[in-house]
Structures are given as C-alpha cells and as structure tokens.
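ARCHIVE CARD
Drawer: 12
Card no.: 0347
Subject: one protein chain, sequence and derived structure
Cross-reference: see card 0346
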Amino acid sequence: LPPASLTKLMTTYVVFKALAQGQVSLEDEVTISEKAWRTPGSRMFVEVGKRVSIDDLLHGVIIQSGHDASVALAEHIAGTEEVFAQMMNQYAEQLGMLATHFANATGLPAEGHVTTARDLATLARAMIEEFPEHYSWHSIREFTFNDIRQTNRNKLLWRDDSVDGIKTGHTEEAGYCLVASAERDGMRIISAVMGTASAKARTDGSQALLNYGFRFFETRLLFKAGEEITTTRVWKSANETSRLGVLEDLYITVRRGTYDQLESILDIPAIVEAPVAAGQPLAELRISLGEDELLKTPLRGLDDNPEGSF
C-alpha cells in the first residue's frame, strides 16, 4: 500500500544513522532550497535561503510531518532527494523490508512508492531499539517554529498515557495511516494501521490493536545475557567443560496463560573439540508450544576454552 507520511519513519531513520556515524551533527545548519520550500503538503514553514539546524528540521519532520523539512534533510544528507531515496531503499533491504520501495523522502504519491504494515512495524522496531534517545521525540505533543505552533497529529498521545509514538500519514491515495507504539509493564507493542477512511478510524483502530496485544499476550525473559543455560563436554581442552548461554537477554512473547506449557529442546553436537572461543556458537536452543516452534537461537560458549596439554 502507499504509506503517505509514514515514509518519514525511514527519512528520520536515515538521518539518525548519519548522526550515529558522525557524518552530521544536530547543530549543523541546512540551507533551505527552493525545491524544499515549494514541496506541497504539510509543512513546518521553513523559508527558502534560510539556515535551519538539523535538530529543528528533525522535530519538524517528526512532530509537524513537514514535507519541506524532509526534503531539506534529504538534500543535505545525500545531495538530492533521489539519491536519498536510494539510501532509504538500501536500509529497507538491510532491515528485511522486502515488500518496500521508496521513491521520495516525504510520502507524496509516486509510482512504485509502496510498503506493508509489517514492514513499517519492522522499521519502527529498529528505530526504537537503535535510537532510543531520538525515538523519544515522537512523544512530543507540539512544536513551534517560525512563531507557528503545530500539534502532533497522533491523537493517541493524548488518549493513552502508555503511547509514546510514532507517526501518522494521510493522502487521498493512502487514506489515513498510523504506526503507533506503547509500553506497559515493561512490554512494548507496535501497531500499524493503513488505508482507513478517517483520522478517527486510524486512531480507534490503533488503540484496539494495542489493547488486544496487551490483553492477550505477555512477554517473558527466558534467559539473561551471560547466564549459564547448560554445559557441554569439550574434547582435548584445558577445561573439561564449557558453559553455554546467550550473549543478549532472550525474551519470548506468547499468549497469556501458555508460558508454563513451553518446551525447550537443546541440540548439542556429540563431539565438540577445543579450542573454543567465547561467543562461538556451539549448540542450538529451540522453544516450542505443542507442535509449533516459536523460537530458535544459537547457544554460545561463554568463556574461552583453549586446547589442553598432552
């Protein structure tokens, strides 16, 4: 489906990547081109020829959904909006957004400019995980630039205190769209609603999805990072056994009331030979519920185990 201004999730993601890589800084000033100034649709009202900080432009994109700010950022990062769109598509491919193609930085209608609800949820998750300090800007309710105050179009920010983002979109072709996210009791859910008939419908639909997720599902911590899950015999090693575990906290999300029914299966090779390096995958952990496999992850050596002497 056409994503309208949900496109700007990727626009800001690309800018956040450039910030993280040290290519630009929030204090850098961008000269507003005539193309950016003339871009139709929602705007933060930048003026042609003026210099505006990347910080302000990002707030203009995130809170005010400014098309003009999106184009200005794209031109500053990549030279042209067309090259910036290529960067957007490269990151989409890296994130596994396989049904997505971007033609511009704004979401204005363009041939082949499409995505899916699933791909947008994938992008939102990546932004939240990789850039928590910038993601928090999506919860800001209003922003004033050039003496013009505009409010965030995500009405869930006023309706539900657990909601802290993320982005609305609307064109005639795309309908009313909203990717929303909320966190309750340490569990986060992302919803994606596209193609509704009104701003109220996208808000109500998103609220219903979030409530459904929190009511019927729960997220549990299975194993902590670095925690010993099991051990395995290591042949020809300095130490007879090696501890196995995961390097990052391992969570699972299941329907409420089914956690105690989960089964774990360890696949450990019959022979493991030294040397073993910390972090080296040595076995596999599979979590299943009945006949359904829910999760599969490698178990890694938690310590170095060099070859032993004769």
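Annotation on reverse: The mean pLDDT is 97. The chain is about 30% helix and 30% strand.
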